[in-house]
């Protein structure tokens, strides 16, 4: 949509420039060749405020019914302060027109052939472009010549052909660069049904340093002039794996209004749409979207579109307002079934699902094999400055293997380069995670802050695919408040400050998980072979302080009727290292109980777990059995019970955690 809008601006500028050139040439036609050269080389430039010259051959075959003109090496100087000396150069122009029609106020061309035109359009600031001519601004001569008020005032043209053209467009305000090589541009009068071929444009070039190929066809020039007829347009643009296909009509092609067309967009990554639209989107797996494109004044709309992004369905409506210096996107998006793997791009993870592109799967595998756990792919901060947006996304159901995600409702609000996810609501484990995330893209190293509330999350849901789901019950909540700086999640966490707390009161956990370390092998086997039992949870509090990327536990306690688990946890998020000590003190001492703390240390992605080998005793044998039957986490449990203590005071722990 923004690409179409840019086309409108570019076409307007091209029309003004070419209209001015033809106006100058028309004046020349009525004079002899020596007078013409004197006028063009010395007078015309002064009239328009630019150097204008025909350096090559100029032939005029005058005839009252049809006058033929041939000119070579035409050039128009650039505006002052711009790099290239010429704004326009044309190798040659051939055209014929009917002078008699001019007496009736009509401009009629027969054939127009333009060979090797080279046009450079530049915009330094909102009021500084090289296609404006101050010397003609009062009369508005160039614009009126090029841009008729209505379709019926468009010149009559028999045929037009442009060969080997080149268009360069640079917009310093929007940081846009276009370099288009036009192989052929052709058009003719007459309806297609009556032999008219319509127009055709083929070309390729660079847009934002990305290669693309353009192929467009449309109605005839007579259709362009007939206000009673819609003007058909078919366009296909291919930029790498991204394909944009438009099929529809313009109610008024001269003013580029009344657009009604089908629009299909497909590619490997929605983030690549930025090169066409300047809309910042996160990396995604391959996608295809289909909908209806319309335009009302400066607002483009993509209505009732549907499609797939990776393994997720996506539908909705969006509009893009191009009236300001920064575009404004407003959208309401809905997914009935969202694959959580398709959301990896939001936190710097490469898509890895079965629908991911081959290069995305390769990158995901490389990251998985690396030593780092936290995503370190930087955010494209400059993209946050290209447009504003207000987008809501609602996922009615989330598919997340191994995780109890249920739904998502989030609003993306990007204003003046500050992106806010607010409100952010995640349905997780029969509870919710709500709050906000903010990224300030006004800075090259953006500050980020996160405020999240964990509300009534079901502990059982996290054991849904294990044998402990029937003995694990209860709910927990908590808070996450973090603020850091950096372009990637890894950088933000490495510099973060804040706190993290989790609180649980009531519920039950598997007796096997809590008490297995106090059982001898003979006692443990019946639980493995038969029905497990549950032990009530009196209180659980985990309260962490975060300073300069270092997370340290202030309180780490889990109190059950059978034991008290104490912990001392430290995590360096910059170096991704963990150093934790977990110690369990049983309230019902068995013969094999021993005070044997467990130590977790090393790389966060692959930590090592160990105990004091001189104090492991028979507990090592029980752990070996558990390690073969349970998850790696469950294998740690036998080492974290020892001693005998009084019950912890849950209210006191909660008060401490809430300070």
From TrEMBL:
GO biological process, any: regulation of protein targeting to membrane
Ranges that cross the membrane: 12-31
Coiled coil: none
Domain of life the protein comes from: Bacteria
Region (Disordered): 349-369
Domain AsmA: 9-554
UniProt GO cellular component terms: plasma membrane
Keywords: Membrane, Transmembrane, Transmembrane helix
Matches recorded under InterPro entries: AsmA, AsmA-related
Pfam families assigned: AsmA
Protein known as: AsmA domain-containing protein
């Amino acid at each position: 949509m923004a690409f179409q809008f840019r086309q409108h601006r570019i076409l307007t500028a091209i029309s003004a420039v070419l209209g001015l050139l033809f106006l100058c040439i028309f004046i020349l036609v009525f004079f002899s060749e020596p007078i013409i050269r004197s006028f063009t080389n010395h007078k015309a430039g002064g009239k328009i405020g630019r150097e204008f010259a025909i350096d090559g051959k100029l032939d005029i075959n005058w005839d009252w019914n049809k006058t033929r003109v041939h000119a070579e090496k035409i050039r128009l100087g650039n505006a002052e302060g711009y790099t290239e000396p010429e704004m326009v150069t044309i190798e040659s122009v051939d055209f014929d027109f009917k002078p008699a029609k001019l007496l009736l106020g009509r401009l009629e061309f027969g054939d127009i052939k333009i060979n090797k035109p080279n046009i450079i359009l530049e915009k330094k600031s909102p009021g500084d472009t090289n296609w404006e001519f101050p010397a003609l601004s009062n009369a508005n001569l160039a614009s009126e010549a090029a841009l008729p008020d209505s379709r019926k005032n468009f010149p009559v043209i028999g045929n037009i052909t442009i060969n080997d053209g080149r268009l360069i467009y640079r917009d310093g305000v929007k940081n846009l660069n276009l370099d288009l090589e036009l192989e052929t541009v052709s058009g003719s009068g007459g309806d297609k049904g009556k032999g008219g071929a319509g127009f055709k444009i083929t070309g390729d070039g660079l847009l934002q340093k990305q290669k693309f190929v353009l192929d467009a066809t449309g109605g005839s020039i007579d259709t362009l002039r007939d206000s009673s007829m819609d003007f058909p347009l078919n366009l296909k643009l291919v930029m790498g794996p991204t394909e944009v296909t438009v099929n529809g009509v313009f109610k008024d092609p001269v003013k580029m209004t009344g657009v009604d067309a089908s629009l299909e967009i497909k590619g490997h990554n929605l983030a690549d749409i930025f090169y066409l639209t300047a809309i910042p989107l996160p990396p995604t797996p391959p996608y295809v979207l289909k909908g209806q494109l319309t335009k009302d004044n400066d607002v483009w709309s993509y209505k009732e579109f549907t499609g797939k992004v990776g393994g997720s369905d996506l539908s909705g409506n969006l509009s893009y307002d191009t009236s300001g210096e920064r575009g404004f996107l407003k959208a309401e998006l809905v997914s009935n079934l969202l694959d959580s793997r398709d959301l990896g791009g939001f936190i710097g993870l490469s898509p890895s699902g079965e629908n991911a592109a081959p290069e995305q799967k390769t990158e995901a595998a490389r990251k998985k094999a690396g030593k780092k756990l936290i995503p370190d792919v930087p955010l494209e901060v400059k993209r946050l400055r290209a447009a504003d947006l207000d987008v809501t996304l609602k996922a009615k159901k989330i598919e997340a293997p191994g995780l109890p995600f249920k739904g998502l409702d989030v609003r993306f609000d990007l204003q003046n380069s500050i992106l806010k996810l607010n409100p952010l609501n995640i349905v997780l484990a029969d509870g919710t995670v709500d709050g906000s995330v903010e990224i300030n893209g006004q800075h090259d190293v953006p500050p980020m802050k996160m405020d999240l509330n964990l509300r009534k999350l079901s502990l059982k849901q996290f054991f849904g695919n294990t044998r402990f789901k029937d003995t694990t019950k209860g709910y927990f909540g908590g808070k996450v408040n973090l603020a850091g700086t950096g372009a990637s999640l890894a950088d933000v966490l490495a510099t973060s400050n804040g706190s993290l707390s989790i609180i649980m009161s009531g519920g039950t956990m598997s007796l096997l998980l809590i008490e297995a370390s106090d059982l001898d092998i003979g006692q443990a086997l019946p639980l493995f072979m038969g029905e497990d039992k549950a032990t009530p949870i009196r209180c659980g509090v985990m309260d962490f302080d975060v300073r300069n990327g270092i997370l340290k536990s202030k309180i780490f306690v889990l109190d059950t009727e059978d034991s008290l688990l104490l912990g001392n946890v430290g995590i360096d998020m910059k170096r991704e290292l963990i150093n934790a000590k977990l110690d369990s003190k049983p309230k019902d001492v068995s013969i094999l109980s021993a005070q044997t703390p467990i130590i977790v240390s090393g790389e966060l992605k692959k930590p090592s777990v160990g105990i004091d080998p001189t104090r492991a005793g028979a507990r090592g044998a029980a752990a070996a059995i558990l390690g073969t039957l349970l998850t790696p986490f469950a294998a740690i449990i036998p080492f974290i019970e020892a001693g005998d203590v009084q019950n912890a005071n849950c209210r006191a722990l909660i008060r401490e955690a809430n300070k």
